Structures are given as structure tokens and as C-alpha cells.
Amino acid sequence: MLDMTNRHLICLLLALLCAPPVQASSQLALDKGCYSCHGEPPRRNAPSMAQLATDYARYRSQADAPRRLADKLREGGLFAHIAAHERLSPEECETLMRWIIEGAK
Ligand code: HEC
To answer: Is CB count within 10 Å lower at the N or C end of the chain?
Structure first.
């Protein structure tokens, strides 16, 4: 009986330790206000998070894609300066790009 309990405890601990980082990333997206424009429905000309994920799935085989996309997003376009993008730290942005490439779940 005690053995069973211990095994359950170990399983629970492992599950907690190995919890997919996507959870943390979706929380980061929430915290950073990404959904105020990329929600459902998205705001004005912003694509929804699901659309972005579909679009970015093509980068899955490219190891350097998260960093490249993050640099590009933080830089902004000539006419598209979005504070929420530019405020991100390089690390945060890379985490979010990786999360979007993996499906933004
Ligand atoms: C104020 C509204 C707004 C907020 C907040 C916002 N975005 Fe955006 N985002 C846009 C718009 C508009 C576009 C499309 C225009 C463009 O590409 O510049 C866009 C485009 C993007 C793209 C595609 C860029 C490309 O060229 O492929 C990504 C990725 C992205 N946003 C991620 C995020 C993330 C992650 C957050 C949260 C940190 C976020 N956005 C917050 C408005 C917003």
C-alpha cells in the first residue's frame, strides 16, 4: 500500500518536473498581452494565434528559426512598430517563437 503511494508520488513529481514548457509559454503569451491582438477574433490586421501557428509550422525543421523570427519580430517593420513585439526580451521572444512554431498550444 505504502509502495503504491510512493510510486504515485514519484509519478506525480516526474509529471510536474517534466510538464511541457508550452504551458509556461502560453502563460507568457497571456502575460505579454499577445492575445489582445492575436486572440479570437484577432484585432484588425493581426492574424490569430492559430493562424500564426499554421503559418509558422513550416519552420519546424529549422533549428535557428526561433531566433531569426524573434529578431525579426522585435525589430519590427519599417511601418509596423508594435510595442508588444518590441518590448520582448530576446529570450522571451525566442521562447514565444518556438512555442508558435510548435503549434501555440
Ligand atoms: C497591438 C496589437 C498586437 C499585439 C499586442 C501583439 N501583436 Fe503580433 N502582430 C500584430 C499585427 C498587426 C501583426 C501583423 C502585421 C505585421 O506582420 O507586422 C502581428 C504579427 C505577428 C507575428 C508575425 C510576424 C511575421 O511577420 O511573420 C508574430 C509571430 C506575432 N505577431 C507575435 C506576437 C506575440 C508573440 C505577441 C505577444 C508578445 C504579439 N504578437 C502581440 C499585432 C499585435
So the answer is: N
Q: Let me know if residue 83 belongs to a domain.
A: yes
- Do the beta carbons of residue 25 and residue 16 sit within 8 Å? no
Residues with CB under 6 A from ligand 1: 29, 32-34, 36-38, 43, 45-46, 52, 73, 77, 80, 82, 84-85, 88, 96, 100
Task: Supply the residue whose CA is at minimum distance from atom 40 of ligand 1.
Answer: 34
CATH number at residue 75: 1.10.760.10
In this model, does residue 66 exceed pLDDT 80?
A: yes
The string of pLDDT tens digits covering residues 91-100 is 999 999 999 9
Distance (angstroms) between ligand 1 centre and the Cα of 34 equals 7
In a domain, 3, yes or no: no
Residue 5, in any domain of the structure? no
What is d(CA 88, CA 74) in angstroms, rounded to the nearest whole number?
7
